[in-house]
Amino acid sequence: MEIIANGIKFYLMGGKAYVMNNHYHGDVIIPSHIPDNNGGVIPVAGIDIRAFCNCADLTSVVLPEGLQSIAAFAFMGCTSLRSIVIPDSVTHIDACAFEYCNQLERVVLPKGLTYLPERCFCCCEALTDITLPDTLELVGEYALHLTAWMKQQPDGIVYAGDILYGHRWDTYSERTLQVKDDTRVIGEGAMEGNQTLTHLILPSSVRQIGANAFRECKHLKTVELAEGLEVIGENAFEHCEDLEAVYIPASVRYIGAEAFAHCKRLREIVVAADNPYLDSRGDCNAVIDSRKNKLIVGCSTTVIPDDVEVIGDYAMVGVYAAEEWVIPRNIKCVGYYAFAENMSLRRLVVHDRMELISGWAFFSCENLQEIVLPDSYIEFGEQAFGGTDLYDSTTSGAVCVGNHLHAYYAQDAGEKVQECIIPEGIEAIDDKAFDFEPNGLRIFLPKSLRYVSNAAFIPSEAEYELIVPEGVGEDYPYYDIDNPQYAPDIYSKWMDILDDEGVKCKV
Questions:
Q1: Domain that includes residue 503, residue range
Q2: What is the pLDDT of residues 240-269, one digit of tens each?
Q3: Pair 433, 380: CB distance under 8 Å
Q4: 3-state DSSP of 270-331
Q5: Is there a single domain that holds both residue 37 and residue 144?
């Protein structure tokens, strides 16, 4: 339901009103309450996404007490807006909320705000005066980038309270960064892309390293992480190609995905022996989540412990390790992108307890030529072996991994293939094996087929003709319909085939 009050457009949800997108100009005063149709009033709770976006003639706006949230891009591109006071009732501001307000000079942030999101005031070139609350816990990547406030900071490293926000490219060229005492947080993307930094020393006051904080500091060679550090964010040290060794203090309880991905020279990872959350058991040169028995960070010298049960998402991505990986027998699952972009890998051996190799797990392992699989069924996710030599070596369009049809390309010398004959011996069709729109493609199924992924035939708009072999019995595979919305057309066709052939569908 929409209501217009004071020339402002609102929508109602859950007994609250939210400012909607419209062409606003001049001076705007947003009321704290608006009338409803029953003689009562409704509190104004938020500014909706893009509500004032690109309102170039908006000169001022008064936000009411009681306002709780400002959505993404809410004031983006308001090029005539010069100042704004955000009431203390606001607890949440989304990304890019004031980006490109290039005449904005003064901002007062609410006292209880804990997170200033990414690109919030990015490219506000005139912004010189910004009041940051003491409650601020994290500043997102590029939140204050290219502002006058940042340019006027006295040295190359820019602090926002007790947060190391970033660095000035034009002035910072030191090889060693010794973060000042009492710094609590290294902000998201704070030193990202710095090409002079070689040594990093953190004080014991630092509790968190934000996402991308030192990403692509390609010459960073040594890192001293002090006791007291608790969180290392996603991609924090990704592509630090000269980094050789990392010591994880006992206080660290969380390491985000790809925190040390693509660190080509990283050969030593040691977790403090008294860390209650993580370990590097048996000098394995890896980080193990002790509670989940999951390997979450590895390097070129990692030896996967025999008692580990899961290889986590991105755990070994970009690692240049051995030419052969023999997955230990206790491991049941390999996560997303776990071994992706391992250029050294040529041979993979998998045991009979493996249950799942997730999507993209070995993606772009360009030299992977041989995969040894057990007789037991293993579920393969989408593109688990995409971009490997298995794809390059196929001549029929069918990419087979053991007894799985992992992918099929319906192209032959630039022409669409009309028929796909799945070879006998194939027992499973994997996720998105038919991920294209070959209208009219006839797919001949083999008698050996036993498993069909719920998302094998994508997209659902494609017109496939599925041809069941003669003489199949009740044990012929079924199309798993736990989520038939992935391919409803295929499901109905499959059911028709089953009905026509007298084969029962097992659900």
A1: 397-507
A2: 999 999 999 999 999 999 999 999 999 999
A3: no
A4: EECCCCCCEECHHHCCCEEECCCCEEEECCCCCCCCCCCCEECCCCCCCCCCCCEEECCCCC
A5: yes
